[in-house]
Structure formats: C-alpha cells, structure tokens
Write a structure and sequence with these properties.
Elements lengths: L1 H27 L2 H5 L4 H5 L13 E5 L4 E7 L11 E3 L10 E6 L18 E6 L4 E14 L14 E8 L8 E6 L1
Parallel strand pairs: 2-3, 4-7
Antiparallel strand pairs: 1-2, 1-5, 3-4, 5-6, 6-8, 7-8
C-alpha cells in the first residue's frame, strides 16, 4: 500500500512538472503559432536536413534567429525548395536600392523563426563568392497578412530594403508573415 502511494505521488509530481514545462512553451510561442501549431507541411517536412558547410554565392543570415540560407532566384510560383530563400522576380536585387522580396518555408532552420523577429535585429547579406557583406536591421515586423495581399512585393524604396515573407500554414491560401529590414 505504501508503494502505491509513493508511485502515485511520483506520478502526480511528474504531471506537475510536465504541466509547468508545457506552460513555459506557450509563454515562448508566438500567438500566431498557437492558431496553427503543426501544419501538414511541417508534419511531413522536418528541418533535420542540413545545408552544406561550403557557402558560395549570396546568403541571408539573421544570427539572432538562427537563419542562414542561400539566396536563389525564384519564379514567383508556389514551388519553393527547402533550405533556400528565394528572390521574387522583378524586385530589387538583395542589397541594391529598392525593395528586395525574399521568401522561404516557415520551418525552423528556414524562415520559421521570423515569427520571433524583433526590430533592431541584424540581417546580413553575405556574398561568399565576392566577399561583399551588407548589414541591415529589422525595421518593422508587419506580422500576419492575407495570402493574396501582394502590396509588400510592390513596395518602393530609394535605399536597400528587404521584405522577408514566410507562410504560416501549409496551403497556398494560408496567411503570410512579413518582416522588413533596411
């Protein structure tokens, strides 16, 4: 009988600890993630694949958010490969005067951490081939926008500006998350 009480007490204690850890995870999770805790895309695509350690060409890096992705030219479609940030066609080249629109999947290790972005955080455009480095900072966390809101692609700027976009859900018609840097 005493063993049963000890085991029941330990079980209760473990449930209490699990509850506290669960509550802490909610405190660290942006509210938007609570609306869409695990998308079908995230369930089938994990961030366990890793990029090669050899870096060539243009990369976008946001050290505070553990983002480091090569920048490739996109075609504006919903065909987005893993482990790259795509440059939206027709927008300014990254680092050049004007608005450069970059987009990537909303998974950890890709652009998923943009949900935690804060103004002032450093955004680095590093061309490992030419050794040119440009440091920018997050100026605005726009947050959630409708999937069909394309106004951020058409923003104009006389100085270099980055508009970073990721999806919140797995379908093409789910909301987007926008962060701006200059």
């Amino acid at each position: 009988m005493r063993l049963v009480r000890v085991l029941a007490g330990l079980g209760g204690l473990s449930l209490l600890v699990a509850g506290v850890l669960y509550a802490i995870s909610f405190m660290r999770t942006p509210a938007i993630m609570l609306e869409h805790p695990l998308s079908p895309y995230a369930a089938t695509h994990t961030a366990t694949g890793s990029l090669t350690t050899v870096r060539l060409g243009e990369w976008i890096e946001i050290p505070d958010l553990d983002i480091a992705l090569p920048v490739h030219e996109g075609d504006g479609s919903d065909h987005i490969p893993d482990w790259v940030a795509l440059h939206y066609p027709g927008t300014a080249e990254p680092g050049a005067p004007g608005n450069s629109y970059l987009y990537a999947h909303g998974l950890w290790g890709m652009f998923g951490a943009l949900l935690y972005a804060r103004t002032g955080e450093e955004v680095i455009l590093d061309n490992y081939t030419t050794h040119q480095v440009q440091v920018m900072h997050i100026t605005n966390v726009v947050g959630k926008v409708a999937y069909n809101n394309t106004s951020y692609i058409r923003l104009m700027s006389a100085t270099p500006m980055l508009t970073l976009q990721t999806c919140i859900g797995a379908n093409w018609d789910t909301d987007r998350w926008i962060v701006e840097a200059a």
